[in-house]
Structures are given as C-alpha cells and as structure tokens.
C-alpha cells in the first residue's frame, strides 16, 4: 500500500530532501508539515478557490499555492510560519520553500493540499456485520412478525361462567406474558447493544486523526496552582 506521505520532495535540490514533520523546523530553508486539525468548511472553500502558481512547489498532486512573498522582506519568515500553522490546524498538509535566498531564490512560496482523510481518493471502509449482530437481528425480526404478535392477542372464550371465564383469560394472558414478553425485551436490548458495538467498530475503523501531543503535566500543575492561589 502506497503511503499518503511519500518521501522525496526536493531530493534533487542542493539542500537535500525536505522530510515530513509535525511541526515547524526553526531555521530550515523548506518545510513539509502534516495537517493535524479537523476539516473546516471555510478553509475547504478557500482551498477550492486556490490555483497553481508559478513556483514548482505545487507541481505534483493536489497542491495549491496559497501565497508567495519576498524572502528578503522583513517579517516574511514569521508570516509564512503563521500561515503554515493556520492551514495545518485545519487539516491541510503544508509545503514551504525558499524561505531565504541561500540558493538564489527571491520569493518564498507556501502551498497546501488536503490532509490525509480529507476527501483524498481512498477505498471506502467496509465493516462486515459481526455474527452476533446478525443472530440478534434475526431473533428480533421474528418478534416483529404477524404470527408472533397474533399470539399476544389472547382470545376471550365465554362459557357462561363469568368468573371462570375471567380467571381463564387472566391465566392464559399471564402465562403468555411470562413466557414471551420479557424475553422479547431481552432480545430488543441485545440487538441495541450489538448495533452500538457495530457502530463503534465501524467509526473506529474509519477514524482519521492522531492523539494530540500533551505538554508537561508538572508545568501545567505549577501554572494553574499559582494562578489559583
């Protein structure tokens, strides 16, 4: 299976290949960052409006140029870093190159593409129903048939003995209830449980994200402890 994050960008450049990273690398001439945020409707519209620029930064795949700035101008590197963080946080992969003129370039370029899981061509996730779910559904379906429901309609059979007829009806209705109704509730509950488990399994299989990087808990404690006291 081909990796979404292919290596090799700028491999033939005099500065060597620019690897994929999760965060901005200080002092680097070029950057290639993985998108980490969730999809955003506003940025999806902005991405759709982008086109290919004059730079080679967006020559392959679905890359689109966001901006090009003079790399000798004060504040260019900081602005590129800000834009990179902004798009990365919205789930877009980011490429930046020519952040300075060490190789003769005068313009720094920044391009983005949809990050992994944001509408890239991927095989749909197919999760087959578990055998336990299939059996639970089959058992529940039987409870929904006209035959089963008709059994719950206990006929009243008059014989002329009012007390005896009422007692007979009550006995037969109680017997059916005890043998069938609680069991049908169990089957409904089992089916609901199996469906929730199947749903969780399906969504976990298609989950695209990553566990956020956590900071030092000691530092967090010291910060908030001082703020509270």
Describe the protein in words.
This protein is an alpha+beta fold and 229 residues long. It folds into 2 domains: 121 residues, no CATH class; 75 residues. The chain is built from 6 helices and 4 strands. The chain has a 4-stranded antiparallel sheet with strand order 1-3-4-2, covered by helices on one side. Helix 3 runs antiparallel to helix 5. The chain is elongated, with a radius of gyration of 32 Å.
Helix content: 40-55%
**Radius of gyration, Cα only, in angstroms?**
32 Å
Q: Report the sheet-strand fraction.
A: 5-15%
Give the termini distance in whole angstroms.
54 Å
Order of H and E elements: EHEHEEHHHH
Q: How can the largest sheet be summarized?
A: 4 strands, antiparallel
Averaged pLDDT:
86
Count of distinct strands = 4
Runs in which pLDDT lies below 50 for 5 or more consecutive residues are none
Q: What class would the helix/strand composition place it in? A: alpha+beta
Strand order of the largest sheet: 1-3-4-2
Morphology = elongated
Count of spatially separate domains: 2
Number of helices: 6
Summarize the structure.
This protein has 2 domains: 1-121, no CATH class; 131-205. Helices cover 42% and strands 10% of the residues.
